[in-house]
Amino acid sequence: MSLEKLMEKFLEQSMEAEDNFYRLEEQRLQVEDKRREEEHSRELQMLQMLGQIFASIRMPSPAPTATPQPSFIPQTNLTVPLARPSLGNRNHPPALIDFASHSQAAGPGLLMEEGDFQFIERSFSLGTSGMDNVIPLVRNTIPPLTSKKHKGQDGRIGIIGGCQEYTGAPFFAAISALKVGADLSHVFCTKDAAPVIKSYSPELIVHPVLDSPNAVEEIEKWLPRLHSVVVGPGLGREDMLLKNAKEIIERSKLRGIPVIIDADGLWLVAKEPSVIQGYQRGILTPNFMEFTRLYEAMHHEPLDSSDHKRSAQQLSIALGHLTLVLKGEEDIITDGKNILTCSQEGSGRRCGGQGDLLSGSLGAFAHWAFSSPSDATKGMNPSLVAAFGATSLTRQCNRQAFHKHGRSTTTSDMIQEINSAFKKLFES
Ligand SMILES: NC(=O)C1=CN([C@@H]2O[C@H](COP(=O)(O)OP(=O)(O)OC[C@H]3O[C@@H](n4cnc5c(N)ncnc54)[C@H](O)[C@@H]3O)[C@@H](O)[C@H]2O)[C@@H](O)CC1
Ligand SMILES: Nc1ncnc2c1ncn2[C@@H]1O[C@H](COP(=O)(O)OP(=O)(O)OP(=O)(O)O)[C@@H](O)[C@H]1O
Fold first, then answer.
1. What is the pTM of this model?
2. Which residues form the signal peptide (predicted)?
3. Binning pLDDT at 50, 70 and 90, where does residue 2 land?
4. Which of 57, 81, 270, 286 could pair with 130 in a Cys bridge, judged by C-beta atoms 3.0 to 4.6 Å apart?
């Protein structure tokens, strides 16, 4: 046998061995994830029992009418703060409002029909009892840091973006996912963007494949190992890159992977809404400009900007009850049925890249929310809970960074604040 043939055979065998390794690894991870889910569910049940005992000690004779119920509001212009007081301990689910009967939990890859137009609006800002009632739902989904886990279990996040012009955006998104607590961040970018992104951080895994002729196949190999994908930061608008991004979204949907779409990914959605329409694990994070583009593409009429909540709800419904995060002075989060508003205090500083911190961290929050048992989110759509976690965190980072750096605040300063903002919101 010639040396060439020998080499070919050797390469084939090593590729086969590698594939086998990853197949086995994937099976092992699935078993591990299942075990973790069961453990989480058992813990929750125990806590629930404890909570009931605790509640019965605190409220010995509750009259049926004394239990505050979440209210349905068939209009957009009312704000109902959640009324039930928190017990002040994140591990007491009974202190949370029961959303189960009012919201639709998203299942893996399910398409949702347009529902009725009734929805609940819940408005939250730090310091009010309302925020106290959603933050615990976010907390319930955050995996505890224990020595029992192996690398990768708390999240392997993929970022699809990064091209010649934009290398900062995918870096901000990927590093934010890591800093929030994901174990691995992969960036799939163009060949010329890769060395630049790698040079920013040795912590990121960077694949220079997005503009290669077999980009989709190259990236698809990694999909079984990813828990969520964030499509768009620094993607650019070149047709070939948008086409590859579209195909990656389609293949992620087939696997039920949560897909967060931001920045230039939203340009793609405005051109071809069907790419994500109705996918219940899809979350869009438009700024006002991107929102206007999407709205006008879907409704074929100019946006009436007098009522952002109503417009956001209409757009979500038109997109098949997809979760939308309309960023702005207050962040509006809706799946067309429920509206959450996050007005956590930020600052007046609007430096480029803040949205990337939001979408990257949302990659991790979305994985956690979708892999939590439904009682962790009290039946609330996991996308809403994840989005609330990411928006409150981004705004808190902005606030803390501004406190230190004032008008010189940049996204890198905000990323430095992730740990302490996270602690303050979710671990105190
Ligand atoms: N350091 C980097 O590499 C960064 C790259 N970025 C990337 O840059 C690309 C283009 O993003 P753009 O946001 O510029 O593109 P857009 O086309 O969405 O925005 C166009 C213009 O709209 C303006 N705009 C944004 N919000 C507005 C609002 N609320 N009201 C009125 N005008 C508003 C912006 O200033 C911008 O000039 C994306 O790929 C994005 O990810 C950004 O993420 C910023 C940081
Ligand atoms: N007027 C505002 N007041 C307070 N916070 C805001 C305001 N506008 C946006 N934010 C916050 O800043 C974050 C990023 O929103 P922004 O509108 O800057 O996104 P973006 O334009 O997509 O960002 P990027 O520069 O990364 O593309 C959001 O979490 C949002 O809560």
1. 0.77
2. none
3. confident
4. 81
Tell how far the Cα of 413 is from the centroid of ligand 1, in angstroms: 19
Ligand nearest to the CA of 303: 1
**322 CB under 6 A from ligand 1?**
no
Q: Give the integer Cα–Cα distance in Å for 207 and 202.
A: 13
Ligand with an atom nearest the CA of residue 265? 1
| Segment (H or E) for 159 | strand 156-160
> With a 6 A CB cut-off, is 264 part of the ligand 1 pocket?
yes
Which residues have any ligand 2 atom within 6 Å of their CB? 263, 287, 327-329, 331, 346, 350, 352-356, 358, 391, 394-395
**Six token digits for residue 326:** 């309309």
Q: What is the chain's mean pLDDT, rounded?
A: 82
What is d(CA 308, CA 212) in angstroms, rounded to the nearest whole number?
40
Instruction: Write down the residue that tokens 């615990």 correspond to.
Output: 136
For 75-131, write each residue's pLDDT tens digit.
232 222 222 222 222 332 322 333 332 333 333 333 333 333 334 444 443 333 346
Between residues 246 and 15, the one the model is more confident about: 246
Residue 341's alpha-carbon distances to 92, 221, 275, 411, in angstroms, are: 24, 38, 27, 23
Q: Between 120 and 389, whose confidence is greater?
A: 389
Tokens at 41, concatenated: 């569910």
Name the burial class of residue 43, with classes exposed (0-12), middle (13-18) and buried (19+) by CB atoms within 10 angstroms of its CB: middle
User: Residue 279 pairs with which residues in a beta bridge?
Assistant: 111
- The pLDDT of 188-197, averaged and rounded, is 98
Alpha-carbon span 302 to 292, nearest angstrom: 8
Non-local CB neighbours of 288 within 8 Å, separated by 6+ positions: 326, 327, 328
Nearest CA to ligand 2 atom 28: 327
Q: Cα–Cα distance between 12 and 9 in angstroms, integer? A: 5
